[in-house]
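Each record in this resource describes a single protein on a pair of labelled lines. An example record follows, reproduced without changes.
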Amino acid sequence: MRKNSRKNVRINAEVQRSLSGIIRNLKDPRIAPLTSVTDVYVAPDLKTCKVMISVLGDEEERKKTMEGLTSAAGFIRKELAADVNLRNTPELTFVPDRSIENGVRMSKLIDDVIAKDKAAEEKRREAGGEPEDEEA
């Protein structure tokens, strides 16, 4: 099976859906309530699975959530085997996903630059300078 075959894409989606529900229902107090499975990469041989986890909170919450998920990996795998019918139930590896956090940070930086440009434009107008974008 190729890495990006239709079958592998369907398996990834189904495993992601199942893991999201399983993790949401875990009773471990270390796992933050705002934990989400952002992506799943199941190996073509179905032996391993990399699970991308996003946690809304501070660094301490992320660390505790990752510890909780790692310690519950066996239970999560057993629940996954019961929920998804695969030839092999993959070994789960949890990886923190910071893409949402990075996206928010980049959006804030862009907003800051736009605000600085607007402030500089207002200063030029108040000083009596000609606006650059307007036509005569």
The chain has a mean pLDDT of 88. Helices lie at 6-24, 59-71, 73-83, 99-126. Strands lie at 35-42, 48-55, 91-96. The longest helix spans residues 99-126.
